[in-house]
Amino acid sequence: MDSSQRGALMLVxxxxxxxxxxxxxxTALYLTQCLVPKHPMPVKIFPIVLNSIPFVIGVAVLIKAKxxxxxxxxxxx
Length: 77
Description:
Elements: H1 3-34, H2 45-63, H3 65-76
């Protein structure tokens, strides 16, 4: 594996991890907002699923990271 492929792989992993963190933070903020003792709101499933989509996309990108990195390295050369 040459340096361009390693760099592309690290870039893809960084982006996937960032998207996963965004999804987790969105979901956690929604749940925290719903479970605040002073102003409780009912927890709805649809916003949780909607906020979890970036996490699922990040996991999928992390699984396919090698293939995506190879594609990026080929495009750059």
